[in-house]
Amino acid sequence: MNCIDLHIHTTASDGTDSPRAAVEKAASLGLAAVSITDHDSVSGVPEAMRAGAELGVEVVPGIEVSSDYRDNNVHILGYFIDPAAPELRPVLDWVKTERDERNEKIAAMFERDGFDISLAQLREEYPDSVLGRPHFCEHLMRKGYISSVKEGFEKYLGEGKPYYLPKRRISIAKAVETIVAAGGVPVLAHPMQYHYPEPELIELIETAKALGIRALEAYYSEFSAEQTAWLLRAAEKYGMGVSGGSDYHGTRKTHISMGTGCGNLAIPYSVLEELKKLR
After folding, report:
1. What CATH code is carried by the domain that includes residue 186?
2. pTM score > 0.85 for this model?
């Protein structure tokens, strides 16, 4: 069976593999197709597509957009987008400005309290990455303040912790509008990961459908067989398609492998074929 992985992060956001390295890994694993879906960024897509053409791996240009749903961070995947679409720029530029300002404030808070950390250091350490909290945690590890990224979130940077700052996000409607304007198919990412009770999850899916989201990510590394089955039924009920991917981040999420996730994934190419019909 030709397998695919439609949820992969690279150094263009918070993954540890370069776009080319991610595609090389996909080729070595025998994957037929992958999608590079970096957070609020398409900067890695051209490099990945060149590598795919060279190595015989189909690369679907993608993105994962952070959006706001009732003060929660809900992710919207966009597949088949044109990374050069002018409609993307205002939104991605706004997101970048918001992230940069937030990072500056977080770094200043750490510096104020005597930590050996600065935004200049992080930019030197991660010149090609979209900086975020994982990068802060890895720097703190190297400096000996913590022993793991997990500890960094639990002690300093997780929600409600001393150096956490909330970030502003665009609405789901704006995320969908932007993805569609760039020629893409909007998909609700990992619906079970928001941990809503079933009635609220149904409400999220119904809202997503009403706003123009065309598919649900039903195959995912951290879903049980029962959760996947529930999402497949929901997609059928609401006339939506399905997608699937590992949410691979390289060494930043060591328990997740490209293509197979936590050992539970084998997503057939037919999933991608059906998604293509939604364009």
Report:
1. 3.20.20.140
2. yes
